[in-house]
Amino acid sequence: MQFQSIQRILGLLLMIFSTTLLPPMAVSAWYDDGEMLPFLDGFILVLVAGFVAWWPVRKRRRELRLRDGFLVVVLFWLVLGLVGAVPLLLSKQPVLSVTDAVFESMSGLTTTGATVITGLDTLPKSILFYRQQLQWLGGMGIIVLAVAVLPMLGVGGMQLYRAETPGPMKDSKLTPRITETAKALWYIYLGLTIACGLGYWLAGMGPFDAITHSFSTVAIGGFSTHDLSMGFFQNTMIEVVAVVFMLLSGMNFALHFVAWRSLSVRPYFGDSEVRAYLTVLSMTAIITVSYLYYTATYQDVTSALHHGLFQVVSIGTTTGFTTAQYHVWPGFLPVLLLFTSFIGGCAGSTGGGMKVIRFLLLLKQGGREITRLVHPNAQIPVKIGRKAISDRVVDSVWGFFASYIAVFCVALLILMATGLDQVTAFSAVAACINNLGPGLGAVGFHYGDLNDIAKWVLCAAMLLGRLEIFTLLVLLSPAFWRR
Fold it and tell me: Alpha helix locations (H) across 390-483?
């Protein structure tokens, strides 16, 4: 293990992250909201901490191995979750405990969108901007951003990219060089963010809300600058823009790159995962809208379609925006939407959940096992599109699924042991491990009333969900530490 190289990279990444505290300082100065000092202090503390970590090992330039990449990713996300809480902890408004500040920071960086803060409409603009910016940075993964920069500083990047990029199949590169791949992903990400912000502005949002909501929309984050989330605006066109960009951001960014490079939409129609993704959301939307109208939750079809479609796309892509209190909808709908978030977005997207490609592989593998009962000796490949998937990938998906459920059950039992009721505990774990945000029961509005133990467990669930379980669990394996 190259510990000195890892220390050097962590120092560099911390110094890079410290610069992200400058934009909120500028926002504070522009609006004169009196919150510049927490960001200035945070900037200095993080910059100095990064420099102190980097300086003693600045000349260590050995190439990272894969296991080093996993350790860097996990350590950096842990450290980032802590240092990201510094401005929130130092701010005068809101007044947060250490636990709440770390929870809010981790929720932002992992694009979960669960919040412990109420009274968002009265918060300083710089704090609101910072929360949204955390989600935007975490959406694509700040480490992928750093991969495009670190080679200039003498650090190899492929190991970091493979450890950070979500999805079961991530060895293929979009471009011959990993730095160019990272840059291509960020160009697409930035382009979608700008287009989304313009869409919100043209639909009726003010410039500040348009920029900040574009951050959390493209990041599939769900933080808002208002307590009522998207429902605050009461604007159908704004919600249409949100639905479009939530759907786009829930797709594989490699597809966006290929479509942009070829100037064609064919890559979308030819992708099995996108078809499954749209099919799941469409079926869930039909069921939701029909049931809302059938139960007279909304008096006309238009309102049922309006609210039903938005909540399905938002919850299904694990964004977490709301225009209605879906957690009080009748019957099975709240649980149906929560279960949909387990499927989540496509691999290689900013969405959470287990990813559509894994869900698709699980279904196909289940179908293969049923066929084998009838034809025990048949050789039946599992295919995605026309491509046969190796048994190793299928096995890894089953292993991921088993680990996901095991982690979920352990977290659920711990939360219930702290005194939470079953609905609240179940939905809180589901919303955090799927990086969704809003839950049911006592966490339908916010997470501020939970006890500290529950909040720390949920922080761990957010991190596990963001790093897709194995990236973190592999560090607990004795084989990882053997030479």
Answer: 391-417, 422-433, 452-466, 470-473, 478-481
Residue 50 neighbours by CB under 8 Å, 6+ apart: 10, 11, 12, 13, 14, 15, 16, 17, 18
CA neighbours closer than 13 Å in the CB half-sphere of residue 410: 11
430 touches 439 (CB < 8 A): yes
What residues contact residue 54 under an 8 Å CB cut-off, 6+ apart?
Answer: 7, 8, 11, 12, 14, 15
Cα distance between residue 280 and residue 69, in whole Å: 34
Closest CA to 322 of 330, 334, 331: 334
C-alpha distance from residue 186 to each of 76, 253, 426 (Å): 19, 9, 35
In angstroms and rounded to an integer, the radius of gyration of the C-alpha atoms of the chain is: 22
Question: CA 267, CA 261: separation in Å to the nearest integer?
Answer: 11
Q: Is 375 exposed, middle or buried (0-12, 13-18, 19+ CB in 10 A)?
A: exposed
Closest alpha carbon to 274 in 373, 183, 375, 351: 351
pTM assigned to the model? 0.91
Q: What does the alpha-carbon distance between residue 62 and residue 19 come to, in Å, rounded to a whole number?
A: 26
- Residuewise pLDDT in 10s, the chain (483 residues): 788 888 898 998 899 999 999 999 999 999 999 899 999 999 999 999 999 999 998 887 777 777 787 888 888 889 999 999 999 999 998 999 999 999 999 999 999 999 999 999 999 999 999 999 999 999 877 656 555 544 544 545 555 555 655 666 555 556 666 677 777 888 899 999 999 999 999 999 999 999 999 999 999 999 999 999 999 999 999 999 999 999 999 998 888 888 888 888 888 888 889 999 999 999 999 999 999 999 999 988 999 999 999 999 999 999 999 999 899 999 899 999 999 999 999 888 888 899 998 999 999 999 988 988 988 888 888 888 778 888 888 888 888 899 999 999 999 999 999 999 999 999 999 999 999 999 999 999 899 999 999 999 999 999 999 888 888 888 888 888 877
347 CB-side CA count, 13 A: 20
- The encoded tokens of residue 196 equal 């989304």
HSE value, Cβ hemisphere, 13 Å, CA-based, for 403: 19
Separation of alpha carbons 311 and 289, rounded Å: 10
The answer to whether residues 461 and 415 touch, using CB atoms and an 8 Å cutoff, is: no
CA angle centred on 88, ends 85 and 94, rounded to 5°: 145
Rounded to an integer, what distance in angstroms lies between the CA atom of residue 483 and that of residue 304? 59
Decide: 368 and 380 in contact? Cβ < 8 Å.
yes
Instruction: Look at residues 430, 228, 81 and name the one whose alpha carbon lies nearest to residue 213.
Output: 228
